[in-house]
């Protein structure tokens, strides 16, 4: 039996990097702070919360994808793994800091 590749997990949380209270996205899974854009390295597959690393994923750059919009590229501060996730700049509840995302597009790959 094949397992799902995406598990919706849209819970609010307190950002482990900046301490902000982050509300659920409402339409998809919220997995990063809209203020500092940091996340936690908690998923093997999106939403499964099964990765034991638990390091802080820090944004290192952003890319523009013609279908997904802005994609934030993260590097885990604990294990060094690189992860990518779509930005939520158009969210109705706590949209991502668009100015910060745009500044990240100028970061070196």
Overview of the molecule:
With 109 residues, the protein is mainly beta. It has one helix spanning 98-105, and strands at 13-14, 21-22, 39-40, 56-65, 69-76, 82-86. The strands form 2 sheets. Strands 3-4-5-6 form a 4-stranded antiparallel beta sheet, with helices on one face. A two-stranded antiparallel sheet has the order 1-2.
Residue-averaged pLDDT: 88
Name the helix and strand elements from N-terminus to C-terminus, one letter apiece: EEEEEEH
Count of helical stretches: 1
Helix content: under 10%
Proportion of beta-strand residues: 25-35%
Describe the main β-sheet briefly: 4 strands, antiparallel
Radius of gyration: 13 Å
SS-based class: mainly beta
Strand order of the largest sheet: 3-4-5-6
The best one-word shape is: globular
**Low-confidence sequence ranges:** none
According to DSSP, the number of beta strands is: 6
Terminal Cα span: 38 Å
Characteristics:
109 residues; mainly beta; four-stranded antiparallel sheet; two-stranded antiparallel sheet; 7% helix; 27% strand; globular
Write the SSE topology.
Elements: E1 13-14, E2 21-22, E3 39-40, E4 56-65, E5 69-76, E6 82-86, H1 98-105
Antiparallel strand pairs: 1-2, 3-4, 4-5, 5-6
Question: Could you give a quick summary of the protein structure above?
Answer:
This protein is 7% helix and 27% strand. With 109 residues, the protein is mostly beta strands.
């Amino acid at each position: 039996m094949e397992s799902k590749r995406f598990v919706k997990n849209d819970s609010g949380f307190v950002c482990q990097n900046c301490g902000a209270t982050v509300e659920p996205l409402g339409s998809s899974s919220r997995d990063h702070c809209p203020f500092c854009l940091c996340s936690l390295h908690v998923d093997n597959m999106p939403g499964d919360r099964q990765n034991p690393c638990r390091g802080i994923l820090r944004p290192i750059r952003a890319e523009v994808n013609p279908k997904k919009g802005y994609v934030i590229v993260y590097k885990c501060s604990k294990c060094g793994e690189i992860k990518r996730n779509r930005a939520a700049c158009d969210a109705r509840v706590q949209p991502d800091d668009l100015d910060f995302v745009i500044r990240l597009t100028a970061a070196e790959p």
